[in-house]
Amino acid sequence: FESLEAIRFYYGERLCAHPLALEARTTEWELPSDVGERVHYSLERGFWCLNREQPEGKSCSNYHVRFKCPLGPSWSEWGAWGPCSGSCGPGRRLRRRRCPGAKKNACVGRSVEAQKCVRAPCPGTDCSVCVCQDHVLVGTVVTPTGRPLPGARVTLKGRPKPSLAITDARGSFRVAGICSDGHTNVSVQLEGFAPGVGQAVANNSTMASVTVILRTLEKPYLVKQPESRVREAGHHVMFCCKALGTPVPKKYYWYHNGSLLDRKVYKYDSNLILRNLGPGQAGTYHCKANSDAGTIKSNTAVLTVLSPEQQVCDPRPLEHLIKLPDDCRQAASGSAYYNVGLCPDTRCPGRPGSNLRCGESSDRCCSVSRLETREIRCAGYVLPVKVVAKCGCEKCMPPKVLVRGRVVAADTEEPLRFAQILLGKEKTGFTGYQGDFTIEVPPATERLVVTFIDGRREFVDAIKVLPFDPRGGGVYQEVKVMRKKEPIRLDADKSNTIPLGTAEGMDPIGEIVIPSGAFYYANGEPYNGTVQASVTFLDPRDLATAAAASSDLSFVDDNGELAPLRTYGMFLVDLRAEGSGEELQTGRVEVRMDAGQIHMAGHAEEMKLWSLNPTTGLWEEESSFHMENAGRRVRREERTFLIGNVEIQERRLFNLDVPERRRCFVKVRAYINEKFIPSEQVEGVVVTLVNLEPAPGYSANPRAWGRFDSAVTGPNGACLPAFCDAERADAYTAYVTAALGGEELEPAPSSPQPHPGTVGVTQPYLDKLGYRRTDHDDPALKKNGFRINLAKPNPNNLDEIQGPIYPWRSLRECEDAPVTANHFRFSRVEADKYEYNVVPFRESELASWTGDYLSWWPNPQEFRACFIKVKIQGPQDYMVRSHNAGGSHPRTQGQLYGLRDARSVKDMEHPGTSAACVEFKCSGMLFDQRLPDRTLVTLVPQGSCRRIAVNSLLREYLARHPPVAPTDDPSGFSMIAPVDPLGHNYGIYTVTDQNPRLAKEIAIGRCFDGTSDGFSREMKADVGTALTFQCQERPAGQRSLFQRLLDSPRTALEDIRREMGGPGRRSLNPFPTRRIPGRRRRMEMLQAGAVNETVTRNPEDAP
Questions:
Q1: Nearest CA to 398 among 363, 353, 369, 371?
Q2: Would you state the pLDDT for residue 1074?
Q3: H helices within 907-1032, ranges in order?
Q4: Is the pLDDT of residue 703 over 80?
Q5: Model confidence at 436: pLDDT above 50
Q6: pLDDT of amino acid 814
Q7: Pairing verdict, β 530-538 and 562-577
Q8: What is the percent of the chain with per-residue pLDDT over 70, rounded to a whole number?
Q9: What's the mean per-residue pLDDT of the chain?
Q10: How many angstroms separate the CA atoms of 534 and 512, rounded?
């Protein structure tokens, strides 16, 4: 906003009295109409632009304003500058202009202009500093905690030379001759710290003081990364990048397809704007941020530029087959599968002029535009189904990403209760009583760094980089934490040695040597008392410690890219003053590593000491190692050490690591079952790979593990980083496991010999990789993982270029590999089950959700899974079906939502007893969030079964919350499903999550365990049950009620009524209802929303 009065006030002599016109242009000299902005200007008021009047997603640009003035008397050109006044030192010079042929004051402005100038310095004068005799500047240089910093170089700001002073042991300095006028700015530099600046404060007429705080250098890290975009030719796009660190990065560089963009041409800073896009601008974009501490490179974003006629969302849906119930077949083909249609998971271009703000996305997605209802004629009934009729570009559903899990002790599995949770530096909450936690991942997060802090100080602070699914939904993660080692007492006035790695039967890997007088408080004050020192060492020679390791063993190399480390051990140092418990720091201490523990060539030379940055979860180099002077050893049999140095200050977690350059990726997929059907892959599975160096008996490196990585499967599996070797196949091996919601998945079998078609890898590469499942040699062992040789593929061998091992630079090929390419496989271990939804929904593709009154999941942002536990007394396992229909909502009453079948699982401790965890549709709001529906759920077990018990708490709850469903039929059970999440005491298990599969897995785990917060995959049939049925073997040739209902519901119900002595044609509901005596009672139930006794008179319309 620029008012005319303000312009005249600030630029009076440059603005004519009566301007003829006004023009506004952006700072890039573009007209408002060219950038699509609405502005206002008037010769009486001035210029203004309002953000609220701009198109969606835009705000006002910065503008220049210029005026057109009438011709009249004008000044001549300025004359030449005159000589500089004075004979030496500073002075001034003048120049003049004329207003020819005009009256006095006809030309607006001054006729004379002055300018400062400098002649040669006066003799004996140093003009680089302002010198004031008898004046003194005193100062201190400290850390944020107040610790003094000796050896810092002090200069005047903007004048790096000469140095004014060097701080002494107390961090102090004193400089004579610096003016104490309060306008002096001091700059301070010290190796390992970001430069600091302080302004002197005058204490009196001759003395000034200043305190400068220096912060430790922190490598830059990204908090905002460029995101992939789709645009049409001629549109605009903006890529955003932001980095933090100490100091904060100021320089940014943008790259297109790997080539640096010219800053002068594109005029970018941390953000890159591309206007009037053309096909040549499509491709990949990334940024780099640079500071004195280093460089960081962003992830790659892909820009797709479409021609105006190019279509990305075909209105005709793709084929998507769902399996029908066993008693349903298509009449024409006899197929048990039905095509319900599918919209491709693609991005549509944003609207013109949109998305020129960081953090705002105007992208649209190809999704369902219209559904149609079809009917499938089954054995005795009609099954409704809704199919995709048309696809179109709609607003993308914003993903909600969650990570859930438990934090437990690595040694005893006890939960870490009420531990504080930090997300980076921000406090986000606490773990629960069972160590459980839920974290919502902030948008645009690339690395989820989470810290769990035990307030009781019994466990090491766990800094974890947790995997998550950026497409949306939840991932379950079990976090292991190490118990702190019991503290030992040290005398601060003596030299102390603490061993690192005291595993039974093994020599220590190294030791820490702390000299006398090295301890001090955080403010720098020396400490001379007794020290309680706890040094907890994570020993990679023990495979069980891998799960408890912190971070993901990554660092940022000189090119700003993430690179892996291979550990020889990590340790946490906790030093506290005895009595007060106050945390202590140290000066320089020695970290000595036994050279005899290093057998691989080149590792001794490349070994470094690293500390963990708790904000980024990345390791940063503290020091390199050098070989110990041989003269220090007294006897030849003594060990030889590599020696490094570190100061134990704010960071307490250290690592003995070697950067590793021999890297690959391993392709893994997860499937619904062991049939490994390509269309039945499972997303959200956490796959973990632990590098084992090397295979047993390989003498080059005796450690058990050296690195671990985790990844989450997407629609095309997952690619996990690993070390590999091209020369020797078994130089590196890996142990791979997979889990979904706490459930361990099974890899393909390998005994007696791995079959290529089952494992997913062709010969002869499969033999070279040496695939072995954990139970290969002992069938009694668990089948929860496999072991392979990490043989780097030979690019000249056609058998090895199609996976499952990919070179490090071929990540894109690994991620985009077709399902027919080689890969390793996991499958879920589950009892037989069947699911049918009237409104189709792929739980692995959250974008496939469609808003409909009959949707099983009414809210795509929050998935609530409900299960009921059914106990069965009988000699075998039995299938139990839940029939789910609308119960109280006027739009869905009596209409089918879906079917669920689940087979009971035997209780190993109770012969003749099994139980089934059967899903039912939860009651609650439907998709429009206006009215709730209480689902009518009917459960019927297969076989000759009779209900003998109902959970008393559940029965009382249903009676207190009408309407009450009929329960007269002893062969089944009906209920109007509860709205409340009742819990295990009722035999009902409810879990809400952003991922439907994860919600169901957690609920099933609790149902198996019979608790509301536990988890088990071993069925406990006697606890937490809602219903109990007694089933018997039926006579040979006699079909069960379950099968009779599937084949002919009408006839089966007639037989039941005849056997029970009821009327012949009282109801056509496929699940018998209770007789309600009396007209008044009937009306009361109808007014309360009870389900009608007679659903339909047309057998074809029966659900």
A1: 363
A2: 36
A3: 952-960, 996-1009
A4: no
A5: yes
A6: 93
A7: antiparallel
A8: 86
A9: 82
A10: 12
- As a whole number of angstroms, the distance between CA 72 and CA 62 comes to 32
Note whether 525 and 143 are within 8 A (CB).
no
Q: Which fold has domain 218-306?
A: Immunoglobulin-like (2.60.40)
Place of tokens 């009076």: 12
What is the per-residue pLDDT across 227-257, written as a single tens digit (0 to 9) for each? 888 888 888 888 999 999 989 998 999 999 9
CA atoms of 878 and 95, how far apart (whole Å): 105
Beta-bridged to residue 631, according to DSSP, are: none
DSSP string computed for 1010-1022 = TSSS---SS--TT
**Percent of the chain predicted with pLDDT > 90:** 22
Distance of CA 646 to the CA centre of its chain: 32
Distance CA 690, CA 688 (A): 7
Retrieve residue 583's tokens: 């945390």
Residue 1089, pLDDT > 60, answer no
Residue type, 686: V
Q: Which of 757, 949, 766, 802 is nearest to 872 (CA)?
A: 949
pLDDT at 57: 66
| Contact between 638 and 591 (Cβ < 8 Å) | no
Banded pLDDT at 506 (limits 50, 70, 90):
confident
Q: Strands 805-807, 743-744: parallel, antiparallel or unpaired by DSSP? A: unpaired
Whether the Cβ atoms of residue 482 and residue 549 lie closer than 8 Å to each other: no
543, pLDDT greater than 50: yes
Residues 6+ apart with CB under 8 A from 743: 828, 829, 1001, 1004, 1005, 1017
Distance (Å, whole) CA 294 – CA 60: 35
Pairing of strands 2-3, 46-48: antiparallel
How many other CB atoms are there within 10 angstroms of residue 541's CB atom?
16
Measured CA to CA, the distance from residue 942 to residue 879 in angstroms comes to 5
H-type alpha helices, 554-691:
603-606
In 133-179, where does DSSP find H-type helix? none
pLDDT attached to residue 413: 86
What is the distance between the alpha carbons of residues 396 and 162, in angstroms, rounded to a whole number?
60
pLDDT at position 920 over 90: yes
Residue linked to tokens 């005058």: 202
On the question of pLDDT at 128 being above 70, the answer is: no
**1038 has pLDDT over 70:** no
- Identify the pLDDT of residue 136: 85
The answer, yes or no, to whether residue 898 has pLDDT greater than 80, is: yes
Q: DSSP assignment, residue 564? A: E
Helix, strand or coil for residue 708? strand
Q: What is the CATH number of domain 136-216?
A: 2.60.40.1120
Q: Judging by DSSP bridges, how do beta strands 301-306 and 229-232 pair with one another?
A: parallel
Amino acid at 989: Y
**Residues belonging to the chain:** 1103
The most distant pair of C-alpha atoms in the chain lies apart, rounded to whole Å, by 129
Helix (H, G, I), strand (E, B) or coil at 1085: helix
The predicted model scores a pTM of 0.70
CA dist., res. 648 & res. 147, Å (int): 13
50 half-sphere exposure, CB direction, 13 A CA radius? 4
State the pLDDT at residue 510: 87
Per-residue pLDDT at 450: 92
Asked if 468 contacts 400 with a C-beta cutoff of 8 angstroms, the reply is no
What is the pLDDT at residue 867?
A: 95
Helix, strand, or coil (residue 930)? coil
Write out the two tokens for 185. 């700015």
Beta carbons within 8 Å of 549's beta carbon, 6+ residues apart: 538, 567, 570, 708
- Token readout for 1081 is 């009672």
Local structure of 534: helix, strand or coil: strand
DSSP letters of 260-297? EPPHHHH--SSEEEE-S--GGG-EEEEEEEEETTEEEE
Phi, psi dihedrals of residue 657, rounded to the nearest 5°: -135, 160
Pick the CATH number of 401-481 from 3.90.180.10, 2.60.40.1120, 3.30.420.10, 1.10.10.60: 2.60.40.1120
What six digits make up the tokens of 631? 């003269």
